[in-house]
Design brief:
Elements (H helix, E strand, L loop, with lengths): L7 E8 L5 H8 L4 E8 L9 H22 L6 E4 L9 H16 L3 E2 L1 H12 L3 E6 L3 H13 L3 E7 L5 H4 L4 H11 L6 E4 L7 H11 L3 E3 H12 L11 H5 L1
Parallel strand pairs: 1-2, 1-3, 3-4, 5-6, 5-7, 7-8
């Protein structure tokens, strides 16, 4: 039994350019659970178009399995995927195949963004949703396809089109607040934020207070689902109703 992670050792896997998911998920970590971060090597390339974004996604896919091989040497009990774009790709069937590939390589259960968002929306009983991302339109189309495959109606979406993977973490509260207000409406049951390098775990929680509806940050949802899948019932205030009530 691990001295600090006596309840669970999570392996967290994310892109080498991501500076948000590790501190976010450390803030969500309960006592007796430890997080061990591994990095998928990708270049800090410029992203100025749909084509650039597709090249970035392929680089991430190519380097993911090697990163898992390194991470699994800590003998983790489960893996948390801190990269969301690839987990939405090619609809629900594509996402299922992708997660199976990750689990086969990691040899432990994997919590990933796409299915965590689905589980969170189902926990609220939401049917009509909108979402924002730091991505380009080509990736938003993949998120929309996944959500629609899961039976949700996507009312609208916003792509922030951040200029590089590292620059996603430089997105301001003002950018995110503006997007949330554009996405809200009486025709929307819940708002979702995807993109793990976009810092929104606290803003999403605050937005729930003034919008009166679920606002789901993907880092919160992914870690929440990892805890629940590991039969860890811990709740935590300050990160939205998903973590405090579900």
């Amino acid at each position: 039994m691990d001295h600090l992670g006596w309840r669970m050792k999570f392996g967290l896997l994310g892109p080498s350019t991501n500076t948000i998911v590790q501190p976010d998920m450390d803030d969500l970590r309960p006592v007796g659970v430890t997080n061990h971060y591994g990095r998928i090597e990708i270049p800090g390339m410029s992203v100025a178009s749909d084509e650039d974004f597709l090249r970035l996604v392929q680089m991430i896919k190519d380097n993911t399995l090697h990163a898992i091989d390194v991470l699994k040497t800590c003998e983790m009990g489960a893996m948390v995927m801190g990269m969301s774009a690839t987990t939405f790709w090619d609809g629900r069937k594509g996402a299922e195949a992708y997660v199976k590939m990750l689990e086969d390589r990691a040899e432990v259960p994997v919590s990933c963004g796409s299915f965590s968002v689905e589980a969170a929306l189902n926990a609220y009983g939401a049917k009509r949703v909108s979402f924002l991302s730091p991505y380009f339109d080509v990736a938003n189309a993949q998120v929309r396809r996944f959500l629609e495959d899961c039976g949700f109606t996507v009312v609208r979406d916003v792509a922030l089109k951040r200029p590089s993977p590292v620059q996603i973490a430089h997105s301001t509260d003002a950018m995110c607040r503006k997007a949330i207000l554009e996405l809200d409406g009486d025709d929307v049951d819940a708002i979702v934020q995807v993109g793990t390098n976009l810092s929104m775990v606290r803003m999403a929680a605050a937005a729930e207070l003034f919008l009166g509806k679920p606002v789901i940050a993907i880092n919160t949802a992914t870690y929440w689902r990892a805890l629940r899948n590991a039969s860890l019932p811990d709740r935590k205030d300050g990160f939205g109703t998903l973590m405090s009530h579900h």
